[in-house]
Amino acid sequence: MGSNSSRIGDLPKNEYLKKLSGTESVSENDPFWNQLLSFSFPAPTSSTELKLLEEATISVCRSLAGLWTVFTLGGVGSKVAAASELSSPLANQSLLLLLVLANLTDAADAPNPYRQAIMSFKNTQDSSPFPSSIPHSFQINFNSLYMALCEQQTSDQATLLLYTLLHQNSNIRTYMLARTDMENLVLPILEILYHVEERNSHHVYMALIILLILTEDDGFNRSIHEVMLKNITWYSERVLTEISLGSLLILVVIRTIQYNMTRTRDKYLHTNCLAALANMSAQFRSLHQYAAQRIVSLFSLLSKKHNKVLEQATQSLRGSLSSNDVPLPDYAQDLNVIEEVIRMMLEIINSCLTNSLHHNPNLVYALLYKRDLFEQFRTHPSFQDIMQNIDLVITFFSSRLLQAGAELSVERVLEIIKQGVVALPKDRLKKFPELKFKYVEEEQPEEFFIPYVWSLVYSSAVGLYWNPQDIQLFTMDAD
């Protein structure tokens, strides 16, 4: 069969194309479908073979179209399409199929070829040959893929695909980090985290790990503070008329930590949030005053929680003296966890002060405004070392403010801070090892990803049904 014929079998060409594509909107001159029709097939010798061939051709072509659509995720061109136009059952099925195939476990004698292809495919503009060690690979337009991923992050499966590509394909990761419009990718990820109450925990994890992977790159950490944003409508706590992408990222991650502290109390989520902030801390630049305030406010919340646990432990110990039969709650473990988080926050603040003090007068202002918060940690054995620089900065600038007199305006205080930064000898700040964290998958990642992918297939696939009572791979009440 060929695309030059006006009929395919018993059907006019345009009718056959509609049947083949599963849509009424396909054009007879569509280059993609015509290219598929240009493939040659052996001539059928019977009506049964003709029918089987037609069904097989439709199946194969739909699969190919799906794999094409998964990378365009509904179609990406120079014109931005409406959300309703981008939603495509075929794209969704194809994406789910790709995720299932990519997460198949390796055979004993051969690695998963689909995962190999995902790990190694290149940009169509890359003319370098594939290494002979890579048997399964292909090329695709990275710009189209990038734009599609930016537009489709509202779904779990699109975010999981983005994670898979960033984590496993160095070509994609290098390309994305070199983009000058990273806000188009980062903003949808931040919006997922911002609406954490409405998202399932797996979607939040994937979004957070994507940020962690991005913050491993120093170039990314610098560039996000140079991108200025206006009127972030989905951020409702405060009107942000203008803020850098970096400051917004800090705000959203801190909000996620605070939500986790009061609701889910997931240590894994805490760890990854703090790791992303730590990776960024040495490159904090021109922090928005609200971002600086929220950093100190989070430390205040942690400090209050620390004092509360200490008080509960003391009262419990006193009560146990009169009754040896009552088992003590494990306050030591709770205290250890909260002190680990407090130390990490102090390390993040310290990293900013030692590496970019002169870029962040708003953070110095916030520290001075809440200086009493840090008093109890100056002599604490777990924090004495990391408190040295913070205490030095607070003492130095407090002294300069006292010399300037009382009743100082905010503008005057910031002016004194900016002048003081120049006068503060840098060699007085103690150097600490650079804060750097790298995302590493668990030892058996398939235990997380395979049930997750199949739960997405169960909940999102169109026209497929499984009996809920027979499902054993994941729990039906899992979010």
Automatic annotation (TrEMBL):
Belongs to the dymeclin family. GO terms for cellular component: Golgi apparatus. The lineage of its organism: Eukaryota, Metazoa, Chordata, Craniata, Vertebrata. GO terms for biological process: Golgi organization. This is Dymeclin. Keywords: Lipoprotein, Myristate. It comes from Moschus moschiferus (Siberian musk deer).
